[in-house]
Amino acid sequence: MEIRQLKSEELEKLGLLYRNAYRIDAATAAQWLQAIKPEQTYVLADSERVLSAIQVLSLIHI
Q: Which pTM was predicted?
Protein backbone atom coordinates (compact mmCIF):
# COMPACT_ATOMS: atom_id res chain seq x y z
CA MET A 1 0.00 0.00 0.00
CA GLU A 2 1.06 3.54 -0.60
CA ILE A 3 -0.16 7.09 -0.13
CA ARG A 4 0.24 9.20 -3.25
CA GLN A 5 -1.48 11.43 -5.76
CA LEU A 6 -4.34 9.90 -7.71
CA LYS A 7 -3.38 8.88 -11.23
CA SER A 8 -5.85 9.96 -13.90
CA GLU A 9 -6.20 6.36 -15.05
CA GLU A 10 -7.47 5.44 -11.56
CA LEU A 11 -10.66 7.49 -11.73
CA GLU A 12 -12.72 4.36 -12.37
CA LYS A 13 -11.26 2.77 -9.22
CA LEU A 14 -12.13 5.90 -7.26
CA GLY A 15 -15.66 5.64 -8.64
CA LEU A 16 -15.88 2.08 -7.30
CA LEU A 17 -14.78 3.32 -3.89
CA TYR A 18 -17.47 6.03 -3.95
CA ARG A 19 -20.13 3.53 -4.99
CA ASN A 20 -19.24 1.18 -2.16
CA ALA A 21 -18.66 3.78 0.56
CA TYR A 22 -21.70 5.95 -0.18
CA ARG A 23 -24.00 3.29 -1.68
CA ILE A 24 -24.63 5.35 -4.80
CA ASP A 25 -25.33 4.25 -8.36
CA ALA A 26 -22.84 4.37 -11.22
CA ALA A 27 -24.39 7.51 -12.72
CA THR A 28 -24.02 9.45 -9.47
CA ALA A 29 -20.43 8.24 -9.02
CA ALA A 30 -19.62 9.32 -12.59
CA GLN A 31 -21.09 12.75 -11.87
CA TRP A 32 -18.97 13.09 -8.71
CA LEU A 33 -15.84 12.08 -10.62
CA GLN A 34 -16.27 15.00 -13.03
CA ALA A 35 -15.24 17.37 -10.22
CA ILE A 36 -12.13 15.41 -9.25
CA LYS A 37 -8.75 16.91 -10.05
CA PRO A 38 -6.10 14.18 -9.76
CA GLU A 39 -3.41 16.73 -8.90
CA GLN A 40 -5.44 17.75 -5.80
CA THR A 41 -6.44 14.23 -4.78
CA TYR A 42 -4.39 11.89 -2.63
CA VAL A 43 -5.17 8.22 -2.21
CA LEU A 44 -4.27 5.17 -0.21
CA ALA A 45 -3.96 2.50 -2.88
CA ASP A 46 -2.68 -1.00 -3.41
CA SER A 47 -1.94 -2.64 -6.73
CA GLU A 48 -5.63 -3.29 -7.43
CA ARG A 49 -7.76 -0.76 -5.56
CA VAL A 50 -8.12 2.78 -4.31
CA LEU A 51 -8.83 2.23 -0.63
CA SER A 52 -9.27 5.80 0.56
CA ALA A 53 -9.10 9.29 -0.91
CA ILE A 54 -8.89 12.91 0.13
CA GLN A 55 -9.09 15.98 -2.04
CA VAL A 56 -7.06 19.01 -0.96
CA LEU A 57 -8.72 22.28 -1.95
CA SER A 58 -6.74 25.49 -1.77
CA LEU A 59 -8.48 28.57 -0.50
CA ILE A 60 -7.06 31.89 -1.55
CA HIS A 61 -8.10 35.05 0.23
CA ILE A 62 -7.42 38.25 -1.63
A: 0.85
